[in-house]
Amino acid sequence: MQPKTSISDVVGVEESAAAQQAATTPVVRLEGVHKRFGDNVVLDGIDLTIEAKEVLVVIGRSGSGKSTLLRCINLLEPIQQGRILFEGEEITRKGADASAIRQRIGIVFQQFNLFPHLRALANVTLAARRVKKMPRSEAERRGRELLARVGLGEKAESYPHELSGGQQQRVAIARALMMEPHLMLFDEVTSALDPELVGEVLVVMRDLAESGMTMVVVTHEMQFARDVGDRLVFMDDGRIVEEGRPGDVLANPRDQRTRRFLRRTLLLDHALEGLTVEEGGSE
Ligand SMILES: Nc1ncnc2c1ncn2[C@@H]1O[C@H](COP(=O)(O)OP(=O)(O)OP(=O)(O)O)[C@@H](O)[C@H]1O
Ligand SMILES: [Mg+2]
Asked: Atom 19, ligand 1: which residue's CA is nearest?
């Protein structure tokens, strides 16, 4: 039997003195961040610090600004006020090298956005080869390692249409890890999956968290938030209205809006349980 390796063996958390020094600087810091689309204020003064190796879970109603928050951190959206620091460097300053910064921040979306005409391995290695100019042999070796670590060692030669949604999403995670990011952003990455495929993606994310990756996770998976999250923030109308340890916030939400949101989420989780479609249709 082969010895079992984990994602941490591949992703690797450096133990050098420099890395330890870096570990004391927050990975991300948002200071008074405002974001508007026209008159629509979407982020209304966000202050947030994410420490190295921290897993921050973000929850909130639809439209509360969760995706926009991630997109601003990744410089996919410009902000109108405030600033964002990444590893101590202000990335929202004029003249910042957005593409270099984005290489250090991996993002995974609800839609996997794999290239349909490329095999899994080519999807994973494409950016590293094009952007980082990594030689093909090295890119493929590392790509295969990462695919194996997300449980897809046998699927390197498969095309996206030959893979399940959960497998495609794991390819997308491997693709993001290929750039050796210092931060991973996950935006509802299990929301489009059939329920039986959610677990395999969450397990990959849990293992990544255990390997020491710094992560911001927008999710409706409250069990994951509780088990894997170090901290949870609840957003409403572009503001952080509550934050704390996930177990505490979920068990004892202090803010009325958090309570209402959680009540509705839990209701939705259970409302359909036990219901069946009677023959002959509804009453
Ligand atoms: N590109 C855009 N142009 C204009 N308005 C936008 C754009 N992107 C988002 N918005 C608006 O910003 C607000 C916040 O959207 P955002 O997608 O961040 O919410 P969310 O919390 O991620 O919601 P959901 O849970 O539905 O994904 C919404 O009012 C949305 O209509
Ligand atoms: Mg969203």
From this structure: 63
**Atom 1, ligand 1: which residue's CA is nearest?**
37
What SS3 class is residue 211?
coil
pLDDT band, residue 24 (cuts 50/70/90): confident
DSSP state, residue 223: H
CB 30 within 8 A of CB 46: yes
Summarised one tens digit per residue, pLDDT across range 165-210 is 999 999 999 999 999 999 999 999 999 999 999 999 999 999 999 9
64 lines ligand 1 (CB under 6 A): yes
Please provide residue 217's backbone torsions phi and psi, each rounded to the nearest 5 degrees.
-125, 110
Ligand 1 mean position to 141 CA, how many Å?
38
Query: Could you list which residues have their CB under 5 Å from ion ligand 2?
Result: 67
Taking the C-alpha atoms of residue 163 and residue 169, their distance in angstroms, rounded to an integer, is 9
Strands (DSSP E) contained in 72-138 are: 81-86, 89-90, 105-108
- Is the Cβ atom of 40 under 6 angstroms away from ligand 1? yes
User: Closest ligand 1 atom, CA of 238?
Assistant: 14
**Do 240 and 94 meet the contact criterion of CB atoms below 8 Å apart?**
no
Asked whether 65 and 43 are in contact (CB, 8 A), the reply is: yes
- Of 206, 199, 116, 122, nearest to 163 by C-alpha is 116
